[in-house]
Design brief:
It is a single chain. The chain is of the alpha+beta class. The protein has 24 helices and 20 strands. Strand 12 and strand 13 form a beta hairpin. Helix 1 packs antiparallel against helix 2 and helix 16 packs across helix 17. The longest helix has 19 residues. About 1% of the residues have low confidence. The structure holds 2-(butylsulfanyl)adenosine. 2-(butylsulfanyl)adenosine binds next to strand 3, strand 8 and strand 11.
């Protein structure tokens, strides 16, 4: 490796570390990140002279705070991280023969909680190890963090105790939280660890309380006032005893397996791996710690890691299985996705029976997939099953190819970009769900609580047959309450959101009709120019074409829509339901300029104007500037050395003018 390559790896690590620690949104798995760090460490061992302060090996990951959010807390004892190893051999090399406490390495985020005379007074995240965020109120709402410690008889009257624990979101809570977020149309979490991190650092601690977090205690960080306590109950003598004391005080301590030989160390690590998926939360390895805390203190730490412990990381599980069926699904966007079903396998604690094959390109990259093929699977980010490789195929196996839409049978087409497989049929039943979800989405009618999942649920429950049914849902309150994941509060929320949406500006209502090519821009232009929906419905194609952004094709589409049975019914129905049909910006339209409704493309160097000046001049006269020539282009303004755009304009028969001609045109108007 060259020095330059190492610096590139620094940058890569920096990028992923930021996503992981500060955004709670990693793009690669922990295992891949560890592998990256490993490459850096190996290169640095070979070339210690290359190591600079910019190296991620010189820092503890994670920034303390996102600007302007939770308060900062400086830790009395730094919360160090652990040296990772990936083989038993490395554990044995590290071990110096002293008795160990071998523990599960819990995959969450670290927090420190401080108790004064038995009362929780401060709770903080690890942050960069030295300075964390004050999340006391949030931690009060986490199971496993007692607000008051049990009044054990051996406790002194006055004392301070700081404990380090790992905050996790149990897998079940993770699935529930993600399902709820999805119902509300919000962004879901990539994995339980990110979910725990995101949920602990919320500004509203009561929301943290709803997230079902759990804290597992694994270390006594700091004690004061225990000097006179009898030895059997004195903290900080043995790690294994500390864990027992923590249990007595009301924490949920991590399990500790004693080990005093290589065999015992190996057996303990294997044992933890075997029981890995029996727990309600994730583990990502085992930690081997020297049990004697006085020895720990003597050994001390490097800038980042204690010398008295190592973390053995388990590799992600991979298994092979045989494909039994391949089928397709059509999504909200009309995209047709192939899915492989296979003989059930156990992966990362759950039974997995299918995985997406994404698109024709993905199947091709696997060299073709067919029923009977043996494939290698793993769980990406340990949650989503993924096919990594085709190991073998039956001799007569025909590679699976997507033909038609599974809903309506229409032959699929590629996307505009030339990939994927899409159903082009606008009357496809899957598209009703699509239109509903679009209608309710944030930038359109903005109906709180009506995300795509909820839309599908309501369609399946037979509560939505046409768009206007949304506004009749309030007549079906009982049926709504009977649906899964649909309590009083969420139904109330949904119905309020629906009522509120009746008041959206006319431009939004126009956009919500879902007419191809008619978005916010056209909606706003129409609203500014006409008093109400009735007037707009009556416009001729010519009248519509004058509007900025409406070409002849969209104008025809708009015209046809208002005259079609489905279109006019939809508008009538929405109006009858009380949806706003009146303009609030009528009369605010600028007088039509010479270039009103025209799209102009500028190419080449103009004799006297800069491109920017030409753009503002065109816009000031009602025109729109676009960067590429298409059938929609009204004019091409060409200067010196105009290239392919000019050729294209000529090919399409679009009018080409010079700067002088443009100025004359604007003058005459
Ligand atoms: S001991 C100073 N024990 O793993 C040594 N850490 O990769 C402190 N972790 O930041 C670590 N389970 O958040 C220890 N049984 C366990 C653990 C554990 C999970 C986390 C901890 C630490 C990270 C290091």
């Amino acid at each position: 490796m060259t020095r330059k390559e190492l610096e590139q790896l620094y940058q890569e690590a920096e990028y992923h570390s930021n996503l992981y620690y500060n955004q709670d949104a990693p793009e690669i798995s922990d295992f891949e990140y560890d592998a990256l760090m490993r490459r850096i460490q190996e290169a640095e061992q070979e070339h210690p002279e290359w190591v600079t302060a910019a190296s991620p090996t010189q820092r503890v990951g994670g920034a303390a705070t996102k600007a302007g959010e939770l308060g900062k807390v400086t830790h009395l004892v730094p919360l160090l991280s652990l040296q990772d190893v990936f083989s038993l051999e490395e554990v044995y090399n590290w071990w110096d023969g002293q008795p160990l406490s071998v523990e599960p390495k819990i995959d969450g985020l670290s927090a420190a909680v401080t108790y004064e005379d038995g009362v929780l007074t401060l709770g903080a995240t690890r942050g960069d190890g030295h300075v964390g965020e004050n999340v006391t109120e949030n931690l009060r709402r986490v199971a496993g963090i007692p607000a008051r410690l049990n009044p054990c008889p051996w406790l002194p009257e006055h004392y301070t105790l700081a404990v380090r624990c790992e905050v996790v979101m149990p897998v079940e809570a993770f699935q529930r939280v993600n399902a709820e977020l999805e119902l509300e149309g919000k962004k879901t979490f990539a994995n339980p660890r990110n979910a725990a991190a995101g949920s602990l650092r919320l500004k509203d601690a009561s929301v943290t309380g709803e997230r079902g977090l759990l804290a597992v205690a694994f270390q006594i960080l700091y004690v004061q006032g225990f000097e006179d306590v009898e030895e059997a109950h004195r903290p900080s003598l043995l790690q294994s005893r500390d864990l027992k004391l923590l249990g007595e005080l009301g924490f949920q301590p991590v399990n500790s397996l004693p080990a005093a030989s290589k065999e015992e160390i190996g057996a303990a690590i294997r044992r933890i791996d075997e029981t890995r998926y029996d727990l309600s939360y994730w583990l990502d390895g085992a930690v081997a710690k020297i049990d004697d805390r006085a020895v720990q203190t003597t050994l001390g730490a490097t800038a980042k890691f204690p010398r008295w412990a190592v973390a053995y990381k388990y590799p992600p599980e991979q298994k092979s299985t045989t494909i039994t069926r391949i089928y397709t699904q059509v999504g909200r966007t009309g995209r047709v996705t192939p899915v492989a079903e296979f003989t059930p396998i156990q992966l990362a604690g759950t039974t997995v029976t299918r995985a997406t094959l994404h698109n024709p390109e993905f199947m091709e990259s696997l060299g073709g997939v067919c029923v009977g093929a043996t494939v290698l699977c793993r769980k990406a980010a340990e949650i989503i099953p993924e096919i990594l490789q085709v190991l073998s195929r039956p001799e007569d196996g025909e590679p699976f190819a997507i033909t038609g839409c599974p809903e309506c049978g229409t032959p699929v087409v590629k996307s505009r970009e030339g990939n994927g497989a899409y159903c082009p049929n606008i009357n496809c039943p899957a598209q009703f769900a699509r239109h509903l979800a679009f209608f309710a989405s944030r930038d359109v009618m903005d109906i709180d609580g009506l995300g795509p999942k909820r839309v599908n649920q309501l369609i399946e429950a037979g509560l939505l047959h046409q768009i206007g049914d949304i506004y009749r849902l309030k007549e079906h309150r009982e049926a709504l309450l009977a649906l899964p994941k649909s309590g009083e509060k969420s139904v109330e929320n949904l119905l309020n959101g629906i009522e509120a949406s009746k008041d959206r500006p006319l431009a939004r209502v126009i956009k919500a009709l879902g007419i191809s090519g008619i978005g916010s821009h056209v909606g706003e232009a129409l609203e500014a120019r006409y008093p109400d929906m009735d007037t707009i419905r009556g416009l001729s194609v010519e009248e519509m074409t004058v509007i900025d952004g409406v070409g002849p094709i969209s104008a025809q589409g708009l015209y046809d829509f208002f005259r079609s049975q489905d279109g006019s019914r939809l508008v009538d129905d929405l109006a009858a339901c009380g949806v706003n049909m009146t303009s609030r910006t009528y009369g605010q339209a600028r007088p039509a300029g010479a270039l009103e409704g025209q799209t102009v493309v500028i190419t080449g160097t103009l004799p006297s104007m800069s491109r920017k000046e030409a753009e503002s001049l065109i816009k000031a006269h009602g025109g729109k500037v676009s960067s590429s020539v298409s059938k929609k282009t009204g004019l091409v303004l060409a200067g010196e050395a105009a290239g392919s755009k000019l050729d294209k304009a000529n090919q399409l028969g679009i009018r080409v003018i010079s700067e002088a001609e443009l100025l004359a045109l604007l003058d005459n108007n």
